[in-house]
Amino acid sequence: MAEKEKKHDKIKHAFKDKNWSEIKSEDSWAIFKVIAEFVEGFDKLAKIGPCVSIFGSARTKPDHPYYKMAEDIASKLVEHGYGVITGGGPGIMEAGNRGANKLGGKSVGLNIKLPFEQFDNIYIDPDKLINFDYFFVRKVMFVRYSQGFIVMPGGMGTLDELFEALTLIQTEKIGKFPIVLVGKAYWAGLIDWLRKVVFEKENNVSEKDFDLISIVDTAEDAVAVIEDFYSKYLLSPNF
Question: Mind listing the GO biological process terms from this record (predicted)?
Answer without folding.
Answer: cytokinin biosynthetic process
